[in-house]
Amino acid sequence: MKALVWDGNDIILTERPRPKIENSRDAIVKVCLSSICTSDLHIINGYVPKACKNIILGHEFVGEVIELGDSVSDLKIGDRVSANCETFCGECYFCKQGYINNCENGGWKLGCTIDGCQAEYVRVPFADKGLTKIPDNVSFRNALFVGDILSSGYFGAELCEIKSGDTIAVIGAGPVGLCVMASAKIFNAGGIIAIDIDEARLNIAKIHGLADYVFNPNKCDIENEIKKLTFSRGADAVIEAAGGDNTFEIAWKIARANSIIALVAMYEKAQILPLPVMYGKNLIFKTGGVDAIHSKELLEMISAGKLNTDFLISSEYPFSKILNAYKDFDTKANGCLKFAISY
């Protein structure tokens, strides 16, 4: 089969053997649509030390089950499925607490430590947990982002313990940040503030009704603008989904005292926690990776018309052009958000 492989230095489109069942809880899935994640670029650029060389990249996909291990009873051949970005057993201490990102037998494996989805077929371990059936009225395109960036956005909003009417600031209007905004609406946020230095992305947040206010911190005093909207208190919660050089600092500065800051961004540099300066604010920091345990519920919301992420797909590439897709995604060609790769 054709597969996109990271050899430790670069990515190549090459031939690989079709995967086989290795464990009774495995499934083999025919990939129908996949997407490129920024964390794939982190691997390519050397920011993920645990990533294995000569691995097939990718973890964000939907497809069709073509083979099942003997222990998988809740799926059948032919099921259309959304894949969770996390591999998790459902049985260890952390899984039982709902912290599947910290699964003692899993974690981020697909496309990192085991072969991922940028191939015609992929083996999914613990398939009874990591694959979710797609409702009949939900297309592959509708479901593409459920197991990763939509789950990440929902996770970020959930971490903030949003109360009805809260004013929520979201730093970063990229794909995850936009999913955070959509999820904050599900939690009945009263006002959503989008913060980004990319005017085009801020405009997307406005056009799709995801943000009530948008600000470019390079063009305004962001702390002052947030105070104007919040009776000088600051945002009731802040979700940091940008991972820029100064976005962590912006997050704690615009948060009101006694609020929660959810950090779902993946940073490339260490961040400074200036405790003496922020001491009196009594802030609570919560960090990701994503515990993507709500895939079924998210698919039900999409099925019911409460969520839609189709607008995130900027372009669709055939798998034969995936090298071009990675290049364009890396350079954000034409202001892209996400790409769909068709097989």
| Cα gyration radius (Å) | 20 Å
- Helix-strand topology string: EEEHEEEHEHEHHEHEHEHEHEHEHEHE
Total domain modules? 2
- SS-derived structural category: alpha/beta
The rounded distance between the terminal residues' Cα atoms is 11 Å
CATH superfamily of the largest domain: Medium-chain alcohol dehydrogenases, catalytic domain
Q: How does CATH name the architecture of the largest domain? A: Alpha-Beta Complex
Proportion in helices: 25-40%
pLDDT under 50 segments (min length 5)?
none
Shape: globular
CATH topology of the largest domain: Quinone Oxidoreductase, Chain A, domain 1
Number of strands: 16
This entry's quaternary arrangement is single chain
Q: What is the makeup of the main sheet?
A: 7 strands, mixed
Question: What is the overall number of helices?
Answer: 12
CATH class of the largest domain: Alpha Beta
Average pLDDT figure: 97
Description:
The protein is α/β, with parallel strands linked by helices and 343 residues long. It folds into two domains: 2-145 and 309-342, Quinone Oxidoreductase, Chain A, domain 1 (Alpha-Beta Complex), CATH 3.90.180.10; 155-287, Rossmann fold, CATH 3.40.50. The chain is 27% helix and 24% strand. The protein has helices at 38-44, 93-96, 127-130, 140-143, 146-159, 175-186, 199-207, 222-229, 247-254, 275-278, 295-303, 322-331, and strands at 2-6, 11-15, 27-35, 55-56, 60-68, 80-83, 121-124, 131-133, 167-171, 191-195, 213-215, 235-240, 255-263, 284-287, 313-318, 338-342. Strands 3, 5, 6, 7, 8, 15 and 16 form a seven-stranded mixed sheet that branches. It has a six-stranded parallel sheet with strand order 11-10-9-12-13-14, sandwiched between helices. The chain has a three-stranded antiparallel sheet with strand order 2-1-4, with no helix packed on it. Helix 5 (146-159) crosses helix 6. The termini are close together.
